[in-house]
């Protein structure tokens, strides 16, 4: 009997799936009426405001269908829509230019037909199946024949819907372009902020010190004949100022592009960083030259990767409570990957912590991503991916 | 003493020549690119070489590599390496062949003429001169090491010792008697469990070896 029970259960599940298909189909009938109304209204301008809202509604329906199908097949159907924002005119342009809008409409029209086509056989399959399979499977212990067909119907719906709802390569491209436009704007903003920071550091720090240095030398020259002791003091001061200016300048330079990167390349620089971190760090570098002589990632990417490692090792030394860490650098076909793992107590706050925020910003400026996993009890793993080809 | 200078920046080059000549040293050769360094040293066999780390053609660490190559060719050749920035791993590489006659200083230090000349003398005589910044970095490593058990004064003494100074200079710098310096040094060696050694490069070596251990098993990169 268990075989039969299982068959019935599976068929019931498929029925639920198909019932939803049918419900959605009936919903579509209603909706298409609304849609036609909107279309007509749009044509006569009055209802132009309705169009974006309608498209968003279509998206929501298509989204619900995607989730439903994903539940049945266990495979996600990706989405690719342009974000509908801005004034009405911009929204109208977006929804009419988005290939996703038309794909959704195509799906809806097709579903209109196949939704019913797939649901109707159910009405016959159930009574027929219960009787035939009841005898065949329940009593004769053979494989059920009719009820599993209901499952196949649900499979068909899933297959067709997947094919229709899957974003076209074009839609994916459009979405990617949109994403890139956004990250590029972010990168430019971050770059601007970085330039302003450097400018401020040089202006307020180094330049101010050099002015004061020059002033002291001038005063020393005036005092030279009349009060040599005072002149000497002023020169001492001047030298201190010069040294402080140099120290500051070194910090600024390190912040822009650590000199050791130029000398030794990323792998060498990270090894030096690891050696001076105070932790036991193992460093592995895949596809990177160790001497800095081979092909190199773009300087900005190397610098960002270096800062990721520097910041996370500092954090690990300060907060993790562990004295071990592992750094992995890997060159892939499209990116540079950085992974830092410590065996500490975990609980690093991915959002908080100015260090992590700054790090994220620096990586995002290069269209990269940072993933932080740090469950309480550890380990903490920071992974950064910096897209680049070299 | 006879000095070879390698420095690509004209202003600094002239400054160094002026400084060394005015201190009574003889500058026997001045070169401005990495590949010229070794031949010049082999030809002139100076008492000491003053080398800039970053030089043409690559503007990377030509000076450092030249220093290592020169010391491989002429064992014990005193070299004083100057750099716009100091990097612990470079110090480790330089000291890899022993601390005898090795100097590694920030270029800024040249401004303190007396101290710079003193460091140069020390290196020429087979001593050591490490930039305070390198030593500070070495000492400010993460805690839980016996270094924490040092008193502040002992810490200062250790720092000056690692930079390569002798007891007299340490005493003068900290304004304490030489006897007090010896006592502090004895305590430092005891607390860090180091074999007692005489003054000079051997003592620096002992201290650096100890700090190297703090460097961790990943060790100075090669």
TrEMBL record, chain B:
It holds the Pfam family Response_reg. Residues 2-122 form the Response regulatory domain. GO terms for biological process: phosphorelay signal transduction system; regulation of DNA-templated transcription. The modification 4-aspartylphosphate is found at residue 52. Residues 143-214 form the HTH luxR-type domain. It comes from Streptomyces corynorhini. Keywords: DNA-binding, Phosphoprotein, Transcription, Transcription regulation. This is DNA-binding response regulator. One of its GO terms (molecular function) is DNA binding. CDD domains: LuxR_C_like, REC_NarL-like. The lineage of its organism: Bacteria, Bacillati, Actinomycetota, Actinomycetes, Kitasatosporales.
């Amino acid at each position: 009997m268990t075989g039969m029970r299982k068959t019935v259960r599976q068929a019931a599940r498929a029925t639920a799936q198909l019932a939803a298909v049918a419900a959605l189909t009936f919903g579509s009938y209603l909706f298409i009426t609304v849609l036609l109304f909107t279309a007509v209204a749009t044509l006569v301008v009055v209802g132009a405001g309705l169009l974006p809202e309608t498209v968003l509604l279509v998206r929501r329906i298509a989204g619900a269908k995607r989730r439903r199908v994903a539940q049945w097949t266990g495979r996600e159907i990706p989405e690719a829509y342009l974000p509908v924002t801005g004034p009405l005119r911009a929204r109208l342009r977006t929804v009419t230019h988005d290939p996703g809008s038309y794909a959704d409409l195509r799906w809806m029209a097709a579903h209109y037909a196949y939704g019913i086509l797939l649901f109707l056989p159910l009405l016959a399959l159930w009574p027929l199946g219960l009787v035939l399979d009841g005898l065949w499977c329940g009593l004769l212990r053979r494989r059920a024949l009719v009820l599993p067909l209901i499952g196949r119907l649900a499979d068909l719906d899933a297959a067709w819907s997947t094919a229709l709802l899957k974003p076209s390569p074009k839609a994916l491209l459009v979405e990617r372009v949109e994403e890139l436009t956004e990250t590029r704007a972010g990168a430019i903003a971050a770059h601007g902020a970085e330039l302003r920071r450097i400018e401020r550091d040089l202006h307020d720090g180094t330049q101010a010190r050099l002015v004061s240095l020059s002033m002291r030398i001038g005063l020393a020259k005036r005092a030279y004949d009349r009060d040599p002791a005072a002149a000497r003091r002023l020169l001492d001061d001047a030298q201190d100022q010069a040294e402080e200016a140099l120290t500051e300048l070194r910090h600024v330079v390190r912040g822009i592009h650590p000199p050791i990167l130029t000398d030794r390349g990323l792998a060498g620089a990270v090894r030096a960083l690891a050696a001076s971190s105070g932790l036991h760090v193992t460093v592995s570098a895949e596809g990177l030259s160790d001497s800095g002589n081979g092909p190199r990632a773009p300087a900005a990417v190397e610098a960002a990767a270096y800062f990721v490692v520097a910041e996370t090792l500092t954090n690990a030394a300060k907060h993790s409570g562990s004295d071990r860490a592992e750094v992995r650098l890997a060159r892939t076909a499209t990116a540079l990957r950085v992974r830092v793992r410590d065996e500490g107590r975990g609980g690093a706050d991915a959002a908080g912590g100015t260090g992590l925020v700054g790090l994220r910003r620096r990586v995002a400026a290069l269209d990269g991503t940072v993933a932080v996993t740090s469950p309480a009890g550890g380990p903490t793993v920071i992974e950064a991916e910096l897209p680049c080809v070299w | 003493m006879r000095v070879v200078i390698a420095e690509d920046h004209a202003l600094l080059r002239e400054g160094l020549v002026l400084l060394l000549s005015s201190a009574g040293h003889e500058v026997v050769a001045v070169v401005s690119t990495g590949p010229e360094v070794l031949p010049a040293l082999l030809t002139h066999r100076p008492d000491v070489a003053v080398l800039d780390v970053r030089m043409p053609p690559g503007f990377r660490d030509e000076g450092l590599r030249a220093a290592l190559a020169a010391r491989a060719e002429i064992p014990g050749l005193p070299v004083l390496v100057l750099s716009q920035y100091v990097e612990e791993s470079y110090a480790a590489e330089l000291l890899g062949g022993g601390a005898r006659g090795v100097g590694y200083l920030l270029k800024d230090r040249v401004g303190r003429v007396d101290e710079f000349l003193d460091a140069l003398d020390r290196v020429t005589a087979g001593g050591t001169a490490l930039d305070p910044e390198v030593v500070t970095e070495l000492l400010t490593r993460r805690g839980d090491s016996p270094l924490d058990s040092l008193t502040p004064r002992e810490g200062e003494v250790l720092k000056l010792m690692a930079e390569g100074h002798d007891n007299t200079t340490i005493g003068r710098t900290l304004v304490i008697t030489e006897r007090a310096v010896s006592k502090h040094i004895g305590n430092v060696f005891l607390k860090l469990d180091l074999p007692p050694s005489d003054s000079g490069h051997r003592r620096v070596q002992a201290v650096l070896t100890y700090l190297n251990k703090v460097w961790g098993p990943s060790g100075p990169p090669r």
